[in-house]
Amino acid sequence: MTDSVLEMLESEKSEILNRLLELVSIPSVSTDPTYLDGMAKARELLLRRFHGIGLSNVQTLEAGGHAAVYGEWLATRDRPTILIYGHYDVQPPDPVELWNSPPFEPEIRNGRIYARGVSDDKGPLSIALETMAAFFTVEQTLPFNVKVLLEGEEETGSATLEKILRNHHSLLSTDAVLSADGARWLPGLNAVNVGSRGNAGFEFTVKTADKDLHSGRYGGVVPNALHVLARMVAELHDPDGSVAVPSFYQGAREISDTERQALTDIPFNEHEFFSNTGAPSFGEPGYSALEQLWLRPCLDVNGMWGGYTAPGGKTVIPNEAHAKLTVRIVPGQDPNLVSKAVKDFLLKQCPEGCSVRFGADRGQSAAYELPEGHPLLTAVEAALTDTFGSAPHRIRIGGTLPMADLVRRVLGVDTVMFSFSTADEDFHAPNEFFRLSSLDEGLRAWTALFRRLGEMTNAQFFEFRR
Amino acid sequence: MTDSVLEMLESEKSEILNRLLELVSIPSVSTDPTYLDGMAKARELLLRRFHGIGLSNVQTLEAGGHAAVYGEWLATRDRPTILIYGHYDVQPPDPVELWNSPPFEPEIRNGRIYARGVSDDKGPLSIALETMAAFFTVEQTLPFNVKVLLEGEEETGSATLEKILRNHHSLLSTDAVLSADGARWLPGLNAVNVGSRGNAGFEFTVKTADKDLHSGRYGGVVPNALHVLARMVAELHDPDGSVAVPSFYQGAREISDTERQALTDIPFNEHEFFSNTGAPSFGEPGYSALEQLWLRPCLDVNGMWGGYTAPGGKTVIPNEAHAKLTVRIVPGQDPNLVSKAVKDFLLKQCPEGCSVRFGADRGQSAAYELPEGHPLLTAVEAALTDTFGSAPHRIRIGGTLPMADLVRRVLGVDTVMFSFSTADEDFHAPNEFFRLSSLDEGLRAWTALFRRLGEMTNAQFFEFRR
Fold it and tell me: How confident is the model at residue B119 (pLDDT cuts 50, 70, 90)?
């Protein structure tokens, strides 16, 4: 198979790598205002790159938050129009002291690039951009209509993406969305994602007194905000790992026997999965790990703090304690209802004379499921078969792509995830990395997909648009 | 009553205040190594002051931690020798943002000096030093033998005080100890302390996996260190406020009916006590607030942290979570046994596959009770009667004076607390203050006590020395 685009990509290998290293050197952390500069720098680099590739109508789209970067190539009327999605923002690097090399100074070790955001999502989005660049260089055009939208708020729950989509509804009109975000599940497993969990989250503060009190003067006769918070958090789960919040599981559809069987057929080494984390197996009884991860909701406290946390001791009874909490929800559930159920439960645990204050809701997204027979899914499955020599498994992810839910609601189209990062790459943790081999695989698969889409017509997509 | 020493103190009023303001401007925080400079500066100031007052044999006593400052005046062979104790170290100022004026830039507002350490213990120890200074100025001597020891580790549990006492056993030999630390219980209540609770503490870390995990990839099937910690902390207490740790109350002596009645006779406005804190009343059923605070042990988590605590959200499953914990114990209990009972209980709560790691023990002190008929107690009661016109109530404190326990064990003598700070002065919290009126009362009472001790002989103390 000598594809001239693949040859071009092969000859450009070191330039492609250098461009990725430059991109991940930029600390584009969207969740923390101290990184605003890094966000601006990442946008500038991407705008230059879009122009350099040959995209037209290049611009930023902004709706009060971090701007998205947009470009397009509309040349072939009867071919499908595909909106390629990715995000240039990254997770915070904390705890920085646990990184073996600085998070924003990429280092290549043992065939892996280590840097914050290299797996989520700068490596995968670079594959999309490099594939386009190679097609332009070799063929001076793309085989179908492309729109590219890279948002800057994925890691904070895509706060203004909905506004951006609504404000630029016709600019962004498309037959389907191809996401460069989402992550492959297991290294070496040829698979395509057909669904993701949704999420919702908020933080809350427990207050038990007007001020911190001295444990020698008040110890034993006043409540302690940390004790109250601890009890609230403890009560969220039963000891077996099930969530104890009433109505928490409401709406989650039953898993059919056929579906259970399909999940069992996936080559998944549960033992290895857990031993890689150093964590014991755990969770809701009666469900396999895959069933839990893909089709059952869960609740995690992501941060908890209060009182004296610096070196040494302090005999204080803290009057305030804080926690950040997120839920993952499944098809059939409403993020707002689940959030409300959790808040109601926390309020009910609050002892008399104490109070709970809730912060703003964060990232309320429904879960997502791809409809059977979708033409972009067909094209992706064909491209993966072309690339790896066998048909991909259909899997799901336990994480959330807020935009898939959003895109269906606002643009009326479906999203197929086609990322070449892998779920074990410690994104959202120290020492995030991206495999150099994934860069190669991704470029080959995206080239194959571009060829497959070049053989399709826009008419094939009509029945799937709403 | 025209006492020439009191007249001298009155005429020196503004100099006395300025010297105190200078002392509290020094950030002598013993618990945090970033304040080492402040600790050294406080010692230098006190050494100069000891020389200036007229004390002899002035020196620092050091045993591997923060040095104590020592001075003495030994002139009158048949009079008692009293070791005056205080501490020049202070609590950390956190959370600094809640202070209305900077913690180490003292401000006088509404008859109160606001500064970290002004109440605990720099104001009270200054009263002792100023009283001595005035006696020297007026009478060129002190009416009894004085040794002064100001330690620098009270706020960290007096880690090397025992070594200092043992290494300088004959230098520090005394008939009794008079403590300028300890705090008066209620503003306006003429009282003398006859006992204090002991304490013990440690920090611990819960570990549930080798690294932080992403809640999208693992949410639901792995334990979360914050959930495990929360459950451990929650299980420490029953919902009614009692401590649920087995053997926790073991050794605590019964409170007799006579004792209960004496506690009831103390003019204590429970409603006001609680409404000043903004906290609801709470705690072990079957005991009044005073009984709980003075004669029942308690357990408080003083700090708790883990996961993502910066602005914004992060969908992380933290693999580690931390807590700092202290207990207050009562006469009859052993701090090591109580600590061990709590640790055993925490270990028992730890789920399989997870681990608990304990930090070093901090501040293990037994509780303290003054023997009936002690001559220093008699002198203090007389001095308070002289000063306020009525006999003081005998009360206790819920806090801990580690040195009282230590001094009895090492020097074989008892300690009477004679501090003029007040327990409502927010030491160990933001906006610590000291009343200017307490400064006046303290100087009068210390002068009266010096007169009373000048009428006593050392022989009166023999039977109370061990």
Answer: very high
Question: Among B33, B306, B324, whose Cβ lies nearest the Cβ of A308?
Answer: B324
- Cβ neighbourhood burial of B48 (10 Å; 0-12, 13-18, 19+): exposed
pTM (whole model) above 0.90: no
Please say if the pLDDT value at position B27 is more than 60.
yes
Picking from B341, B365, B389, the residue at the C-terminal end of a domain is B365
Distance between CA A124 and CA A386 in Å, rounded? 19
One domain for residues B87 and B230: no
Q: Which residue of B lies nearest to A156 if distances are taken between CA atoms?
A: B313
Decide if B306 is inside a domain.
yes
A420-449 per-position pLDDT tens digit:
999 889 988 999 999 999 999 999 999 999
Final residue before a domain boundary, out of B333, B365, B397: B365
Return the closest-CA partner of residue A227 out of B232, B346, B251.
B232
Which of the four pLDDT bands, split at 50, 70 and 90, describes residue A372?
confident
A348 interfaces chain B, CB cutoff of 8 Å: no
Tokens for B209?
């996996």
- Rounded to whole angstroms, how far apart are CA atoms A247 and A339? 11
My answer on whether B44 and B70 are in the same domain is yes
Read off the tokens for A287. Answer: 């469900």
| pLDDT of amino acid A1 | 53
Non-local (6+) Cβ contacts of B11 within 8 A are none
Does one domain contain both B178 and B75? yes
B133 located within any domain: yes
Subunit contact B218:A324, Cβ cutoff 8 A: no
Q: How many domains does chain B contain in total?
A: 2
Q: Containing domain of residue B106, as a range?
A: 4-196+368-464
DSSP type of residue B25: T
- Which residue of chain A comes nearest to B350, CA vs CA? A239
Residue contact B213–A281, C-beta within 8 A = no
**Which residue in the set A220, A281, A362 is minimally distant from B292, CB to CB?**
A220
**Nearest in space to A136 (alpha carbons), one of A59, A55, A74, A76:** A55
- pLDDT exceeds cutoff 90 at B185: no
- Percentage, residues of chain B above pLDDT 70: 100
A143 vs A75: CA distance, rounded Å: 9
pLDDT at B1: 54
Across the interface, do A313 and B201 touch by the CB < 8 Å criterion? yes
